[in-house]
Amino acid sequence: QKEVEQNSGPLSVPEGAIASLNCTYSDRGSQSFFWYRQYSGKSPELIMFIYSNGDKEDGRFTAQLNKASQYVSLLIRDSQPSDSATYLCAVKRGTALIFGKGTTLSVSS
Amino acid sequence: EAQVTQNPRYLITVTGKKLTVTCSQNMNHEYMSWYRQDPGLGLRQIYYSMNVEVTDKGDVPEGYKVSRKEKRNFPLILESPSPNQTSLYFCASSPQPGELFFGEGSRLTVL
């Protein structure tokens, strides 16, 4: 089982819809979880992190964590074409940060 | 402006010719890390450093070396590059592991 797994997509949603991106992880002891966005040809940028079970909201973004089920998700409300990018889930393992392969999101206008 | 600066941004080299990719950050971060990104394989950690003179291997350290003599700098050294090290390399820094600030990337081709 891969340490951090994401559906590679592409995930296609119309403008204004909710995009739901999911990530599962194998290390039950993981404590910290991160979502990065990477536009084509650019470097990853941090958009959210979550440490506790439940939801964390930041503007149009909501991160959800369920440690019992070992998954973390990212919801993007009112999706915009500018949200089209690859979204990387990352899990902290000790002092290292392990990334999933990313999910490509395409928002059509 | 807070930034992580990598050089060179693009490099084509030949097998066996030693090269160094420099990385410098101006945010006084203790944690620095190198990743390579390959199609279908995602971002994989090469080496990381918790502080000056403290470095450790990531998931794919073979063929690479690093040093951390100063807090701001974390160069990646390829002593004898091979074609399988052709990749996009990212340096990143953060106050602690997790909330990384990435450099713009260095695209390396080894012929």
Would you summarize the structure shown here?
Chain A contains no helices and 11 strands. By secondary structure, chain A is an all-beta fold. In chain A, strands 2, 4, 5, 9, 10 and 11 form a 6-stranded mixed beta sheet that branches.
Q: Shape of chain B from CA axes?
A: globular
Spatial gap, N to C terminus of chain B:
36 Å
Sheet with most strands of chain B:
7 strands, mixed
Quaternary structure of the protein? heterodimer
In terms of per-residue confidence, which ranges of chain A show pLDDT below 50 for 5 or more consecutive residues?
Answer: none
Over all CA atoms, what is the radius of gyration of chain A?
13 Å
Class computed from helices, strands and strand pairing of chain A? mainly beta
Which chain pair shows the most residues in contact? A-B, 20 and 24 residues
**Into which percentage range does the β-strand content of chain B fall?**
over 45%
Helix-strand category of chain B: mainly beta
Number of helices of chain A: 0
List how many beta strands of chain A DSSP finds. Answer: 11
Approximately how much helix is present in the residues of chain B? under 10%
Give the CA-based shape of chain A: globular
Distance linking N and C termini of chain A: 37 Å
Whole-number mean pLDDT of chain A: 94
* Pattern of helices and strands of chain A: EEEEEEEEEEE
